[in-house]
Hints:
Blueprint: E1 3-4, H1 11-18, H2 22-28, E2 30-34, H3 36-44, E3 51-55, H4 62-73, E4 77-81, H5 83-90, E5 98-103, E6 119-124, H6 129-142, E7 147-150, H7 168-174, E8 180-184, E9 201-205, H8 214-218, E10 222-224, H9 237-252
Parallel strand pairs: 1-4, 3-4, 6-7, 6-9, 8-9, 8-10
Antiparallel strand pairs: 2-5, 3-5
Amino acid sequence: MPREITAFSNPLIKYVRDLRDKRHRKAARQFLAEGLRILTEARETGRLPRTLFYAAASANHPLVHALSMDVEEAGGESIQTTPDILSKLSGKDNPQAVVGVFDEFDAALEDLDRASAGIWLVAERLRDPGNLGTILRTGDAVGAGGLILIGESVDPFSVEAVRASMGALFEAWLRSGPGQLVGLSLDTETDYRAATYGAPTFLLTGNEAQGMPAEMAEGCDTLVKIPMLGKADSLNAAVATAVMAYEVLAQQR
């Protein structure tokens, strides 16, 4: 049965609120996710929160009820609380109906099956959380195998194994098996539609402000660019990744 917490001073509430801070997330190896849609999609892929918080008004919602039951059957805890406490946990004035505490899940490069997908997304020193979210949604839309982050990227709460010095670990892993590394660059004359993309193709997007360093560009099999017909010299990193991903998907289909 779910327990009820209504006191802001409860130690668990303080612990969960602290997970909004990167330092506490890294120490606890846990992270927060909120929203019924996100938690339901996670449940459908077999990932359940360790702790589930929801408001009393949402208790009878069928998806909230299903989440709560599955969390408890998996050994987790469901907690009914107040909208004010949900707001405190999420940091938003209008919190979502549910907040979940998940254990981090790491994916080491050597554990990835590159043959499981025709497209993989790679980002080098990605710093904007919004770009990270957009690229992840793009990867899902095109059926990508995953997103590999290299260097000092925005905190994704996991994948420390792929955060090697300037991508050396990634390149060594890539060259250990089949795979074409395609870099998005302004320093090339090759139009992105003129290149041929085999499977698996790894799309590499550089840092939003500085692009990718020369050593990363030299390690690519192909450098391509998206033509700019106006005054702007480049697209947003997430938008450019989406354009490229759909071109790769179109060729591979």
